[in-house]
Amino acid sequence: MHFDDFLSDAKLHIKTTGREDSCSNAMVFPYEPTSYSVLERLAQEGWISKEDHLIDYGSGLGRVPIYLADRIGCRTTGVEMAVKYHEQALLNLEAYLGEHENHLIGFCNKKAQEYILPDTANRLFFFNPFHLKTFKLVMRNVLDSYRKNPRNIRMFFYYPQDAYISYLSGLSEVMFLDEIDCRDLFEEEDNRNRIMIFETPGEDECSE
Question: How many Å apart are CA 126 and CA 98, to the nearest integer?
Answer without folding.
Answer: 28
